[in-house]
Amino acid sequence: MLTWLSVLAVLFQAHTAPSDETQAAPQRAVSAAFDSVRVVELFTSQGCPLCPAANQLLAEFGEEDDVIALAWGVNYWDAYGWADQFAMPQFMDRQKAYVDAGEAMRVYTPHFVLNGSPEQLRFDADRIRAALDETAPIPTAHIEETDTGAQSLALSGARATPAEIWVVQYEPGVQTRQIESGRNAGLRMTHFNMVRAVEKLADWQGGEARYVLPDTAQGLDAVVLVQDGPGGRILAAARLP
To answer: What is the DSSP string of 172-217?
Structure first.
């Protein structure tokens, strides 16, 4: 169980782990607008009839400065005539971990997850808005920069079980795609903050630890999520500028 948590994210342009001199270099904090955030994840599909409205709702949430909004494409609607253009097997694995840990009996779309919560939320815009309003914020990972440009994520605290560190890269903002067949045939579908890659950086066993952050691909934004095991609640999160 997490008794206390300190997250320091130090961002830089280098491609390798920092040297001893880099690690010892002075650090300066980068101010953040909020010291806490709420993470909203949406599992969505281009073949799901309810997902266009859910995507729009996620975009609405993403306008709030203290919300990290992420959309994960899944492929189990592909059998109805249209292959989702964003789906990847790792994204389905993430949803299945939430289902295994929570109340749902199977995967479904649209599936909103708030701060890694295991509760099953039936899709209704007013219901989801109310649930987000009631969701307690989680700590924002502190971002710092060294004079030498080194980057790392530092964690300290006590844990009974490992926590997972995830780096998620996504296409920021709104985009539209034409759906030619399937349940949404003929629709020009709006998407928001579609995830394009996810990487498990490490299992944090507790204590003091530092992790080098990977580069973000050109044209993408990234966030770090510190999560209480597979399908567990998110303990801390940060956008990586």
So the answer is: EEEEEEE--SSTTTT-EEEEEEEEEEEEEEEEE-SSSEEEPPPPPP
